[in-house]
Amino acid sequence: MPVAEPPLYDLATAAKNGGAKTMIEAVFSRLREDILSGRHQPGERLRVEQLRKEFGVGASTIREALSRLMSESLVTTEGQRGFRVSAVSLQDFRDIAEMRKILETIALRSSIEHGDDDWEAGIVAAYHRLSKVEERLADKPDDVASEWGDLNQAFHDALISACGNRWLLNFRKILHDQSNRYLRLSLVDTTAPRNVHAEHEAIFKAVMARKPDEASELVGTHIDRTVGVIAKQFEGRPEAAE
Amino acid sequence: MPVAEPPLYDLATAAKNGGAKTMIEAVFSRLREDILSGRHQPGERLRVEQLRKEFGVGASTIREALSRLMSESLVTTEGQRGFRVSAVSLQDFRDIAEMRKILETIALRSSIEHGDDDWEAGIVAAYHRLSKVEERLADKPDDVASEWGDLNQAFHDALISACGNRWLLNFRKILHDQSNRYLRLSLVDTTAPRNVHAEHEAIFKAVMARKPDEASELVGTHIDRTVGVIAKQFEGRPEAAE
DNA sequence: TTTTTTGATAAAAACGATATTTCATGCTAT
DNA sequence: ATAGCATGAAATATCGTTTTTATCAAAAAA
């Protein structure tokens, strides 16, 4: 009996560690991260046969994982032409940012209106953790960058966690991830701006003071700022192909 | 050579007629319609083996079609426990309606702002067709109900067709289909209210006069009305299970 | 040259079979 | 009587192969 080709890494154990119950979910998560991180470039073809060997799983497992990634518009497919990573464009990012402003604002207003003591406590805790890391950020930027990313996300999640509308939260999450993909593709150092902590502090105070207009305004400008950064990246790069 | 089990209907030819390029797309479309129409009840298990025989295709084809239906939240899955039709609840419908009001309003405002002559022409045409059918609707309701549904959708699509934000349009479409599922499940006769034509006329006029506030208000109340209808349906039916 | 046709190759889609897991049923021990 | 365990049937998830389709390049025709 010939020995099977060794897969590039052990997906089965990685799956259990990641909390995935099935191989499909494990492949899904892994591919998702690879696309969001830019390891798979926009527009790149995702060949089932190739991925099959890479992960050491069957073809239909790969296909099903790719199909599920279509939910978040991270993967597209057309007729008999296989799968590709979703393309990017400046216009697309503008649309994403526009939608984010709308949804993030509404979610925040809803949370401010309905949030209870637990909600406030969660924000305080998340803000505290984030602040601690941001203190260290000035000294050793590369060291805590990854940690900052997680805590930053946790803070923003905490802000809107009292919004009960699941559809709103779902759409917001999709857009948030998409936006992050653009930032990571553009190698934007999201921690670079000096005023990042000041912004968080301002948002934090406005929310705790239950001032919806002020908080919305701050979040809106926060999102607007990213558009300018990405727009610069796209200048001088007319089109991207496979 | 034994003759294969005859499938319940010829999917391959139905696929080509429906414009589907692959079996997966054909199964996808068919299942989608079956769920939206209520032929598959909320919460119902969708057994792969059963569907496989019904459609006369392979198991992975079914699985992939089901996976893609997760994009629109029409199907859910939970590790090793198969697929089921998404459950329904009054709260879910309220969330959907709330989101629809927001997105529909924004899309309409954007269209009114950016719409050109072609956009106006499209609305006029769609409105005209819809009006013609609504005249006949009073006499022979059952006869033209299906046609009215299509034209009604076409009219509302035309209204927002000048909104360039693809994400907005995508989310709106998902919510619109979800909303329709609730209405169809509740056996609501969407053509019943006498004032349906009057509403459309009012929206039409407000849009053509480029009055965004007025048009948004009208669309908002149009959506609000459905919530009342669905809420009645849910009263007296505590929970639904498999 | 430019356009068509043809053939070869690579990839995607679809299938059928196998291995695992879940769930329900009935049995046993306390 | 009931909680817990064992057992088997049903259904899921997964795999490797077969069939179909698209792509590309070279040859033939215009």
Q: What does this molecule look like?
A:
The structure is a homodimer of 242-residue chains. By secondary structure, chain A is mainly α. Helices cover 67% and strands 3% of the residues of chain A. Chain A has helices spanning 11-17, 23-36, 48-55, 59-69, 90-114, 117-137, 141-159, 166-185, 196-208, 212-234; strands spanning 45-46, 75-77, 83-85. The first copy, chain A, has a three-stranded antiparallel sheet with strand order 1-3-2. In chain A, helix 1 (11-17) packs across helix 2, helix 2 (23-36) packs across helix 4 (59-69) and helix 6 (117-137) runs antiparallel to helix 9. The first copy, chain A, is globular, with a radius of gyration of 20 Å. In chain A, 30% of the residues are buried. The interface between A and B is medium-sized, with 29 and 27 residues. The structure holds a DNA duplex (30 and 30 nucleotides).
